[in-house]
Amino acid sequence: xxxxxxxxxxxxxxxxxxxxxxxxxxxxxxxxxxxxxxxxxxxxxxxxxxxxxxxxxxxxxxxxxxxxxxxxxxxxxxxxxxxxxxxxxxxxxxxxxxxxxxxxxxxxxxxxxxxxxxxxxxxxxxxxxxxxxxxxxxxxxxxxxxxxxxxxxxxxxxxxxxxxxxxxxxxxxxxxxxxxxxxxxxxxxxxxxxxxxxxxxxxxxxxxxxxxxxxxxxxxxxxxxxxxxxxxxxxxxxxxxxxxxxxxxxxxxxxxxxxxxxxxxxxxxxxxxxxxx
Length: 277
Fold this sequence. Notes:
Blueprint: E1 2-6, H1 8-13, H2 19-24, E2 29-33, E3 37-44, E4 47-54, H3 59-67, H4 77-88, E5 96-102, E6 110-116, E7 121-123, H5 124-128, H6 138-157, E8 160-161, E9 170-173, H7 174-178, E10 184-186, E11 193-194, H8 200-212, H9 221-232, H10 236-263
Antiparallel strand pairs: 1-5, 2-3, 3-4, 4-6, 5-6, 7-9, 8-11, 9-10
Helix pairs in contact: 6-9, 8-10
């Protein structure tokens, strides 16, 4: 099994080389490195890129995921497909510059995806960290809630479930924000799935992950309800009448994630159950 895509700039950079060997040898600023995958930023001819290089998950990791009813990530293809699919549907995601995969054995398959770096962006996790000490102006908070809700609606409307849909994976354009516009892009799509129709359980998981990741922030019930209205693009009365069970399940799952995070010391512990939608 072999597949290769090189945009013109990467084809020029790797002319005369084996692209798979060139990808494996990439060096730069490492953002994440685990047993089977590393993420790094590098530059070629003054242009910056992000690369994710997958060395193969191994049978142990694959079996562990299957036993726990989780779909294993077998390489870079998910991210390659999701980025291109979202771009085709007008949803901002990293632009793919190169992709390759080689090998029949899913446990040892080598693959990589290289995307243009998203410059002058800040993650919503970093942006909102200061809100605990200095709450934002109400108009800025509403603008951001609306933007996140519209973005989630567009992504799900395009048939993409992120499967790690936390605010740290939403990047805000700094220049646009300074001009009063909340322009977002999504990253880290290596677990994403493309569905013709998203099952409600997957939608619930994405939305719960998003809610979980903001539970420590100074958000009110009115803020949650605003998100619901904008996400569904419908009057709030209609949303609540038709979907109270869904949003209740989203809140319960988010609170379960939060309780787990509290036990592991991963959250601040400010949130008290029952505040959400």
